Amino acid sequence: MIDSSALRTRLDDVRARIARAAGRVGRDPATIRLVAVSKTFPADFVRAAADLGQIDFGENKVQEALPKMDQTSDLPIRWHLVGHLQSNKAKKAGRFDVVHSVDSAALVSRLDEAARAANRTIELLVQVDLAGETTKHGAREDEVAGVFEAAGPLTAVRLVGLMLLPPAVDDAELARPFFRRLRDVRERLLARGIAASALIELSMGMSHDFEVAVEEGATLVRVGTAIFGGRN
Predict the structure, then answer these.
(1) The whole model's pTM is what?
(2) Burial tier of 116 (Cβ tally within 10 Å: 0-12, 13-18, 19+)
(3) How far apart are CA 207 and CA 229, in angstroms?
(4) What local confidence, expressed as pLDDT, does residue 110 receive?
(5) Where are the beta strands (DSSP E) in the chain?
(6) SS3 149
(7) Distance, CA of 218 to CA of 201 (rounded, Å)
């Protein structure tokens, strides 16, 4: 059962917190996109949030997202894949508008094939592994430039930035150094000659640390619990 009033309150609160965080560092809140992560919540919740003006929605798994896409196909919303994508699932990911979790040149190529088959263009972000945690995915910094170079000749995908999953910490301030390091990675890629148009977005920050991420330059924040409530 959806409590529409509570959903509105939480969504308004997240938007206000983004605006305040942006204001603290002199950023325009309009440059930050909120991705409402709807994983484990049914399509009715997506529809309710869309009624409140939410446009961007994130899912962790392709197989969970596809039925929701079908059930909300009448809505003017954008779908983001924010979870890890296995190469053998890339063919089914052609319906996403944005994939945040690209970690190899091979995956870029598979997504290009999927996008061409779906007759559409997909925006991609390269997930960067800055913590070296065995439980998380991502390309090492020394591999990232190669992913961008592999995407150069492709026509159905477009690289637009970087994504980060910092170590899970209770204190959001402990994530700040990782957000800064992702920004530094972008600067080094620009210095290496990667086009600025391929490095527009920084996807970083979730429910517990998105304000710190905004202060450190996030352009996409992936917020689930703070909008939809606790998951079962």
Answers:
(1) 0.96
(2) middle
(3) 10
(4) 97
(5) 33-37, 56-59, 78-81, 98-102, 122-128, 157-164, 201-203, 220-223
(6) helix
(7) 7
